[in-house]
Amino acid sequence: MNLHIFRTNDDLNEAAAGLFASQLRVKPASVFGLATGSTPIGIYDKLAEWHSAGRVSFARAYSFNLDEYVGLPHHHPESYLRFMEEKLFSRIDMPESHRHIPDGNAESLDEECRRYDELMEDYQTDIQLLGLGHNGHIGFNEPDKSLRSGTHVVELKEDTRRANARFFPSLEEVPTSAVTMGIATIMKAKTILLVVRGADKAEIVHRALTGPITTDCPASLLQVHPSLVVMLDSEAGRLF
Ligand code: GLP
Fold this sequence. Notes:
single chain, alpha/beta, Rossmann fold, seven-stranded parallel sheet, 7 helices, globular, binds 2-amino-2-deoxy-6-O-phosphono-alpha-D-glucopyranose, Glucosamine-6-phosphate deaminase, hydrolase, EC 3.5.99.6
């Protein structure tokens, strides 16, 4: 594991975006696994800034998002499709046909999960960006007795819904389920970039990276990934 703790959020954003930029320089047709939530926003801002300054191009790159809520209309302000449009895709030059997000409104969610897995079989993710849930979830792979390898529908834990309620008018409006990439798909990425910010995640990120490898903390599985890069702000990194 390659662990970096940054003094400022801007330093962290620069370093994380820098990893994407160097990857694009080596291989313009890179495949990126992308994440939502508050954690990646500063990194997406930096990439958009570098794109408008002519420093990076995604014209030949591909992306696969980790997850999507079930049942939120595509235009809903909190759908991950809309989030990605606003925070990144509308600000860079990645062709629309190269961007992929599971469809949480598909008529058959099982078929949608199969379709997403089949699609991803044709690509090898170069960098998978991950945030971390307060309960150790990655994507929406929630703590459980066992974890699923491929894309699947998951019922969201109460604490995850509560954590995400800050983005919705009320807790009742937070969807109860989501479609998420599975653990095996995430682990297949050549490099995984785990980014964690904030004092409230100091304990969980420490447990995930130094504690037992267990499905009770899905992020702990990242310990066995051969190319794991971890970027923390000083608050999240205070136990290291
Ligand atoms: C969300 C997403 C995850 C994200 C995590 C943390 O529910 N499904 O992909 O990493 O929770 O979110 P945040 O970065 O807002 O703390």
